[in-house]
Amino acid sequence: MKPMDSLSEKRLYRETLSAIEKARPVRGNICKGIFFDDKSLLPTISYPDIVNYLIFTPSPYSKDDLKAYKGLNCYVQAYCGWVSEVKAAVVGDRHVVIGKVLHSMRLKENPLNPWLISEKNGSILASHCD
Fold first, then answer.
1. By the 8 A CB rule, do 128 and 27 touch?
2. Which tens digit of pLDDT belongs to each residue from 28-85?
3. 26 Cβ contact list (under 8 Å, min separation 6)
4. Residue ranges of the domains in the chain?
5. Scanning 18, 94, 105, 130, which has the fewest C-beta atoms within 10 Å of its C-beta?
6. pLDDT tens figures, 12-28
7. How many CB atoms lie under 10 A from the CB of residue 119?
8. C-beta atoms surrounding 20 within 10 Å
9. What gap in Å lies between CA 3 and CA 50, rounded to an integer?
10. In 1-130, which ranges are continuous DSSP H helix?
11. Are 12 and 60 in contact (CB under 8 A)?
12. Residues in CB range of 113: below 8 A, 6 or more apart
C-alpha cells in the first residue's frame, strides 16, 4: 500500500468538506458563530451508525474497509468525561458536530479537535481529528 502524498490528502480533505457548505473545519479552526451547544441540533447517531462508519467505510488509502476497531471505544471515552465542548450546526441537510477530546496517554497536552458530518438520521458521512 503506497502512502498518500500531501496533494492527495488535501484533495481528499476538500472532497470530504464538499458534504457541507459553510462550515469549514480546518485543523481545529472552524467558522465561528454557526455552532451552538443546543442539544436539539445534534443528529440521532446510534452505536450501529458509529460501527458502520468506523468498520465498513472504505479506506481512502486502500479502498478496503476501514476496520478502525479501536475507535469503537468512543462511547466509553464520552461516558467517562474525556469529551467536552460538544457543539453542532445544521448546514443545509447535514449536521456538523465539533468538540474537544482529551488525549488518552498525554493528559497535560491540549485537547484534540474532532468533527463529524452526518445526515439527520445519524448516518455518518465524514469525520476528522487533528
1. no
2. 445 556 888 888 999 998 888 988 888 888 776 666 666 776 676 777 777 888 888 9
3. none
4. 6-128
5. 105
6. 667 666 666 545 554 44
7. 16
8. 21
9. 26
10. 6-17, 47-56, 74-79
11. yes
12. 25, 27, 28, 98, 99, 100, 101, 129, 130
3-state secondary structure of 124: strand
Output the pTM of the full model.
0.72
Q: Scan for cell 455552532, then name that residue.
A: 35
Cα angle value 22/19/130 (rounded, 5°): 80
Residues 6+ apart with CB under 8 A from 28: 113, 130
Amino acid occupying residue 32: K
Which residue carries 457543539 as its cell? 87
Q: In whole angstroms, give the CA distance from residue 95 to residue 10.
A: 22
Which are the contacts of 25, defined by CB distance < 8 A and separation ≥ 6?
Answer: 17, 96, 98, 113, 115, 128
